[in-house]
């Protein structure tokens, strides 16, 4: 078993983004969903079983501006 990290995932509202970020629309509600797919190897096109998981506590609404200065500074640093 291995730990999965989503540390490097970046979200943006820039529809012209060329950096591979996930594009979201401002003022929309999202709930991430995780799909676990069994495959023989990483290059295989044959998939086995598939399980999907979502967690209500991960639901969020996108914004264009933060009202909290600490959050704004955190976003600038990362």
Q: What does it look like?
A:
The protein is mainly beta. Helix content is 12%, strand content 29%. It contains 1 helix and 6 strands. The strands form 3 sheets. It has a two-stranded parallel sheet. The radius of gyration is 16 Å and the shape is elongated. The two termini are 29 Å apart.
Short characterization:
Helix content is 12%, strand content 29%. By secondary structure, it is mainly beta.
Indicate the topology.
Elements (H helix, E strand, L loop, with lengths): L10 E2 L9 E2 L5 E2 L2 E7 L7 E8 L5 E2 L7 H9 L1
Parallel strand pairs: 1-2
Antiparallel strand pairs: 3-6, 4-5
Largest beta sheet: what is the strand line-up?
1-2
Give the oligomeric state of the chains in this entry, treating copies of one chain as homo and distinct chains as hetero: single chain
Query: How much is the average pLDDT?
Result: 86
Q: List the domain count as a whole number.
A: 1
Question: Proportion of β residues?
Answer: 25-35%
| Global morphology | elongated
Supply the number of helical segments.
Answer: 1
GO molecular function, one term: DNA-binding transcription factor activity, RNA polymerase II-specific
Protein name: T-box transcription factor TBX6
InterPro entries: p53-like_TF_DNA-bd_sf (IPR008967), T-box_DNA-bd (IPR046360), T-box_sf (IPR036960), TF_T-box (IPR001699)
Keywords: Developmental protein, DNA-binding, Nucleus, Transcription, Transcription regulation
């Amino acid at each position: 078993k291995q730990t999965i990290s989503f540390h490097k995932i970046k979200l943006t509202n820039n529809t012209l983004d060329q950096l591979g970020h996930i594009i979201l629309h401002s003022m929309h509600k999202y709930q991430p969903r995780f799909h676990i797919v069994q495959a023989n190897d990483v290059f295989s096109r044959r998939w086995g079983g598939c399980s999907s998981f979502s967690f209500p506590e991960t639901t969020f609404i996108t914004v264009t501006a933060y009202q909290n200065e600490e959050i704004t500074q955190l976003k600038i640093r990362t």
